[in-house]
Amino acid sequence: xxxxxxxxxxxxxxxxxxxxxxxxxxxxxxxxxxxxxxxxxxxxxxxxxxxxxxxxxxxxxxxxxxxxxxxxxxxxxxxxxxxxxxxxxxxxxxxxxxxxxxxxxxxxxxxxxxxxxxxxxxxxxxxxxxxxxxxxxxxxxxxxxxxxxxxxxxxxxxxxxxxxxxxxxxxxxxxxxxxxxxxxxxxxxxxxxxxxxxxxxxxxxxxxxxxxxxxxxxxxxxxxxxxxxxxxxxxxxxxxxxxxxxxxxxxxxxxxxxxxxxxxxxxxxxxxxxxxxxxxxxxxxxxxxxxxxxxxxxxxxxxxxxxxxxxxxxxxxxxxxxxxxxxxxxxxxxxxxxxxxxxxxxxxxxxxxxxxxxxxxxxxxxxxxxxxxxxxxxxxxxxxxxxxxxxxxxxxxxxxxxxxxxxxxx
Length: 410
Ligand SMILES: *Cc1c(COP(=O)(O)O)cnc(C)c1O
Fold this sequence. Notes:
Bound molecules: pyridoxal-5'-phosphate
Low-confidence stretches: 1-9
CATH architecture of one domain: 3-Layer(aba) Sandwich
Helix content: 40-55%
Strand order of the largest sheet: 3-4-14-9-10-13
CATH class of one domain: Alpha Beta
CATH topology of one domain: Rossmann fold
Number of helices: 18
Distance between the termini: 54 Å
Strand content: 15-25%
């Protein structure tokens, strides 16, 4: 079997995916209503032009610098390092980006592309509201009309983010169908795009969706890994030995990992949300517990029932509570280049507290999943080695959840 071969021999692999049809190995593609195929083709062509257009790239970098606040620091976590007494631990500080997480890197890239394509109107869907806020932010900045679809249940749970989006000038449309959550909001956004494809650009917030979205999100997030590489070289004169990042749809993780994939000496680990435990029904550990299927326009792994219905995921962290995973991660899992593990709610909440007390950084609960894996990883590391963790976001947005959790323990 060809993938057995690639599995045993990732040392000679290259990772220049996707192929022309938008596949990462067996995963990816464009599973959308036929009427959207021309729109995806137009998007791909415009994106490839932008990618090779010096002026576009210079402008994108300039906005990341002057508006988002890049480059973000690579912080040596001295007390966490001392706590474990092994390899040096560094945090890549995406929590210091404008709006408090990495999502804005991708939102900036896609809104600039929308402008270049002459689109006037932006749509997006959001679950926990973080992608909605990032999208509303860049639309305000660039003067674009912005419509965000959100399930009624999510709007109730994430009222503050609804208020933020409205304050930023976005129209938030309530979705009352199905379970009134993310997948229903996604269906509505796709319906809107089908109807208004002439003047509307659909911004997808993670490394998911039909081709070319997973590739675009990766390319707009790889700045995380590119900066890490040069910052670590300046600080330590060496490459990292281990990379860690949490996985929702997979955009912050692929952003960190991508520039390092072809160096076989680096151990790369993606951390999924185990929820109440990856072997329970209450989990969001898609690669650990899911199977092949099609969701949100591409073939990948997903959590599903035996008859192929999407299973409702669960995690204490709203940003990891997603039943799918980007197709590039599915391929990196399949080819065994990247290890995928799961951390449950309790372990993540412990890491939130440890990082706050030892580093003066309150991480997002999503990020804390990656940090929590240090418990398992650090005993295997040695002095002189380096671990880089992507600090994907700050925990301020999670304070209500964190307070409730801590107060229930005392
Ligand atoms: C949205 C989010 C994530 C998960 O999304 P990815 O696309 O997997 O990166 C992780 N961390 C934070 C802080 C987020 O806001």
